[in-house]
């Protein structure tokens, strides 16, 4: 079966630059022959983590839905903004909820991190911060990351990147990531036989 890749936009707002980047990556993943599930954090509504809520009610439906989506995916691409040089609270909160589920869905999952920002840093510091909880959970975070600076001017009407050199770099990063995931998925299948 083709690989299943979840592409998750981590911003909630309708005009999100990261949602546009997520849509572009989803198209590239599809063109590479994988099955894509494009989603954004707004589909997974959950309260701020509270151990009392967890004790009384268990996991909120939004966290369970995100966990299930992760479980069904061979890999995840996260397109996240940078808030104050770090991970947006909503994304960190979702990671915290999901981390309570067993088997823990982020463990051994391959992840590619991308970001978009109108600034010159492109949200790259946020991605470095995002590596910390993900790697703590055993996620295989791809070494290369992609950050789109000045993203408000970064997309063509067709949804490609305006800078063709940068567009090519993204295409290559996605292809290399998928190749790694595919090789690893095949290896795991062989080992389980
Ligand atoms: C930001 N923004 C921002 N940008 C950046 O490059 N570095 C930063 O540290 C921050 N910090 C920050 C904090 C908060 C609270 C907000 C609301 C915004 C700007 C941010 O990159 C911009 O709003 C993006 O457009 C957000 O991503 P989406 O929603 O377009 O995907």
From TrEMBL:
<dbReference type="Pfam" id="PF03358">
    <property type="entry name" value="FMN_red"/>
</dbReference>
<feature type="domain" description="NADPH-dependent FMN reductase-like">
    <location>
        <begin position="3"/>
        <end position="152"/>
    </location>
</feature>
<dbReference type="InterPro" id="IPR005025">
    <property type="entry name" value="FMN_Rdtase-like_dom"/>
</dbReference>
<protein>
    <submittedName>
        <fullName>NAD(P)H-dependent oxidoreductase</fullName>
    </submittedName>
</protein>
<dbReference type="InterPro" id="IPR050712">
    <property type="entry name" value="NAD(P)H-dep_reductase"/>
</dbReference>
<dbReference type="InterPro" id="IPR029039">
    <property type="entry name" value="Flavoprotein-like_sf"/>
</dbReference>
């Amino acid at each position: 079966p083709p690989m299943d890749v979840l592409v998750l936009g981590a911003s909630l707002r309708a005009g999100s630059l990261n949602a546009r980047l997520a849509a572009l990556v989803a198209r590239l993943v599809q063109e590479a022959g994988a099955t894509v599930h494009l989603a954004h954090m707004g589909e997974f509504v959950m309260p701020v983590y509270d151990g009392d809520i967890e004790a009384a009610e268990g996991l909120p439906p939004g966290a369970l839905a995100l966990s299930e989506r992760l479980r069904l995916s061979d890999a995840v691409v996260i397109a996240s903004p940078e808030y104050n040089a770090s991970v947006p609270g909503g994304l960190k909160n979702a990671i915290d909820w999901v981390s309570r589920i067993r088997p823990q869905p982020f463990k051994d999952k391959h992840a590619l991190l991308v970001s978009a920002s109108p600034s010159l840093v492109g949200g790259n510091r946020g991605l470095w911060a995002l590596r910390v909880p993900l790697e703590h959970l055993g996620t295989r975070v791809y070494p290369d990351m992609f950050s789109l600076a000045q993203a408000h001017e970064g997309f063509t009407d067709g949804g490609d990147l305006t800078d063709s050199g940068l567009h090519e770099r993204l295409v290559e990063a996605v292809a290399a990531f998928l190749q790694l995931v595919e090789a690893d998925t095949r290896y795991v299948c062989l080992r389980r036989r």
